[in-house]
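Take just one protein record:
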Amino acid sequence: MAVPKMRMFKAMKQKKKRAVDPNAPPRPNLMSHDKKIRETTEAFGKLHSIIGKQQEHIQELEVKFKNMQQAIGQIVNYIKGKD
């Protein structure tokens, strides 16, 4: 009762590779996709903090501008009053 050797070799036979289109984009990789999502999330977090700092700075500059306008208005009124 010998097992035919041909059957064993058919199972071990290497499959033919499919032709690869050189112009096709690379196949998606879940690990790289996860990495891109993580990097994008981090970038949005950084941008959010930058925007918050810029808004605070803008508010400070607006307060300074209003104070300067008041000071200039007082100077102009003082000069007009002397004439």
Q: What stands out?
A: The helical segments are 5-12, 30-82. The longest helix spans residues 30-82. The chain has a mean pLDDT of 86.
